[in-house]
Amino acid sequence: MPEAPPAIELRGVTKRFETRDGGGHTATRDMSFTVRQGEFVSVVGPTGCGKSTSLSLISGLAAAGDGAVLVQGSPVTGIPDRLGYMFQQDAVLPWRTVLDNVAAGPRYQGASKQAARDQAKDWVARVGLAGFERYYPHQLSGGMRKRVALAQTLINEPSILLMDEPFGALDVQTREHMQDLLLDLWSGTSAAVVFVTHDLTEAIALADTVVVMTAAPATVKDVVPVELERPRRVEEIRLEEAFLEVYRRVWDSLREEVEITRSRGAGRVA
Ligand SMILES: Nc1ncnc2c1ncn2[C@@H]1O[C@H](COP(=O)(O)OP(=O)(O)OP(=O)(O)O)[C@@H](O)[C@H]1O
């Protein structure tokens, strides 16, 4: 049998945006990496290097200039089927209850109101919010809202899951809970995940592979395997020697790119 194509493949992708002054900005340059079905890939790189742009390319929200972007072996021409996308800013609608926010995906896919609500109830429980079905988003903490957003995304059973600093605004403890929850829920699926983060601990704790990007325009500098056993508990794994070894390797690779970015005057660093 022929081997299945990777879930995601970027082949030599260069993306140039037009700027308001009539010029252009190259966000990615000759970028190549692959993600297997069921693989969790974290992407790290200096601030502004082009990490989010790589997600836009995979999602079909931005078109590649040169090179090719493939999902399940086919060139991306619009939003691929069964794609989930989570941003730092969640997409929870303030005028809908928790249950109806989570039920929105199945409703959109044509499920009856009752069937969508039954499915949503199950997902609300899976993210630890049983009993909060009738609450509105303003009645929830930031971490609880994030749980709603996770349920809202995962209820659609994405086979490709793109996450752009989804836990970036949370305090450290809540963030670790969310990371563990994500790993628990993802482990029951075969979704390919691309997770963009500035937090190296988060990147390594979650991933099978860490892709390190260069300073802008982003290209792949290093691909680091994370051979740590699963299931993982984030607060425990980060203290292990094997984890620290991967951390040192990733940081060694990233440090130079962060310094280049700093020397160009960018404020925030990875
Ligand atoms: N639609 C667009 N039009 C013009 N320029 C863009 C557009 N999207 C991104 N850029 C530019 O491309 C560059 C890379 O942006 P991108 O958001 O991909 O970087 P990033 O690595 O995700 O950033 P950060 O680390 O700050 O989250 C930036 O200079 C940004 O201004």
Characterise this structure:
This protein has 270 residues and is α/β, with parallel strands linked by helices. It folds into two domains: 8-82 and 159-263, P-loop containing nucleotide triphosphate hydrolases (Rossmann fold), CATH 3.40.50.300; 92-156, no CATH class. It contains eight helices and ten strands. A six-stranded mixed β-sheet has the order 6-7-8-3-9-10, with helices on both faces. A four-stranded antiparallel β-sheet has the order 2-1-4-5, covered by helices on one side. α2 (98-108) crosses α3. Bound molecules: adenosine-5'-triphosphate. Adenosine-5'-triphosphate binds at residues 17, 25, 27, 45, 47-53. Keywords: ATP-binding, Glycosyltransferase, Nucleotide-binding, Transferase, Transport. It comes from Planotetraspora phitsanulokensis.
Concise synopsis of the structure shown:
With 270 residues, this protein is α/β, with parallel strands linked by helices. The protein is built from 8 helices and 10 strands.
Distinctive features:
single chain, 270 residues, alpha/beta, Rossmann fold, 2 domains, six-stranded mixed beta sheet, four-stranded antiparallel beta sheet, 10 strands, globular, binds adenosine-5'-triphosphate
CATH class of the largest domain: Alpha Beta
CATH H-level superfamily title of the largest domain: P-loop containing nucleotide triphosphate hydrolases
- Order of strands, main sheet, comes to 6-7-8-3-9-10
Beta-strand segment tally: 10
- Give the helices and strands as they follow along the chain: EEEHEEEHHHEHEHEEHH
Domains, number = 2
In this entry the ligands are: adenosine-5'-triphosphate
- Name the beta content range: 15-25%
User: What about the largest sheet?
Assistant: 6 strands, mixed
CATH fold group of the largest domain? Rossmann fold
How would you describe the shape? globular
Tally of DSSP helical segments: 8
Mean residue pLDDT:
94
Cα end-to-end separation: 43 Å
Radius of gyration (Å): 19 Å
Q: In which range does the helix fraction lie?
A: 25-40%
Pfam families: ABC_tran
Domain ABC transporter: 8-240
Keywords: ATP-binding, Glycosyltransferase, Nucleotide-binding, Transferase, Transport
GO molecular function, one term: ATP hydrolysis activity
